Amino acid sequence: MTDASLFMRFSGVLLDTWRKGLDRFATHSAPKPPEETDPELLYVRARGLARAGDYDTASRLFVRAGELAPTMAEALEAQGEILDIEGKPEQAMSKYEAVRKLRSQIRDSAPDRPFVLRQRRRFTAEIAAYTSVLHSIRRHTLPHIARGNAYLAEGRPKEALNDYNDILRWKPNHPDVMALKGEALAMLGEHDKALQAFDVAVAGRSKNPDILSGRAISRLAVGRLDQADADWRRQLELLPAEHASARGCVALRLADYEKALPEWERALEKEPHDPYWQLYRLTALHRLDRSAGPIQIDTIDVWPQPLLALHAAKLTADEVLACADTPERRAEALFQIGVLALPSDPAEARKRFNEVVEKAPPSMIEYAAARHELARLGS
Question: Can you list the domains of the chain with their CATH numbers?
């Protein structure tokens, strides 16, 4: 097992060993003023105080962190733990229920991407723990990789890049770390530099589908469509047949609907209620001019249900766009509007696909699929 893969899943065993260091780091190193406005620093200090037995102060800091970052499930969970310790189980349960609700709304990123990039949550405690360890064992690869991965998963590529570059000073051109460096550079929009890193990584790990995925995205971002397609097709060859959802995502990036449809059928056998797999199956069926049958819509209040409603002709394009409350959701909506417009109004479809390419990040499935649709339209 490689250094990078060893810590892709943020080993809980090692974290338990290192949390004593986290307590010292939290109690003595984190900013102490109660008016601190950084929710992550508040959380770290509160955690250290709670472990030291100062539950009152810790609880106040956890509450403040939750006020500053309402989606920080960890702060709510910590409040629940303190309430449990204080013998208030009913109040604790209300916090735990809020945590469950928050986490149920978080969906991992596309399964054809590296594990570290599929995670969507905060890694405050992990980052603090690895930082504490690095105070003692600075020149050690694994904590740097683990902290870099945690930063990358949080969408903090600059900090991740610092950790990866530290490792590369000791282990030049390490293929797994070069791949991670490529992902960090791509997240920063520096795709030319990312490609240099990915090329080194692919040379050392030519059969790693995750690395090919990253290079394909950066190749597409700089306009090398044919080269990106070559990487994605190679990724498809390397992905096991049982990884249907990952294979479906790659096929959809290629806008290869003949390949995508059977993968989504298989993915839905395993996860019949997954709304995105349902949506992507409908996308493939529509582009192949095949009947989808009745489409069940239970609610339009939860994304991506409005997109399913669009396919079922229960919402208009404008109504769906009004539901798209983030840039990513807007890109998803624009792509589906383009797909549905394509048979009868190619000009409208072209307009929508162009909007996706102009506004979406290259890492999105819809960005790649829109680029392929535009190429077919001669744009």
Answer: 32-104 (1.25.40.10), 111-238 (1.25.40.10)
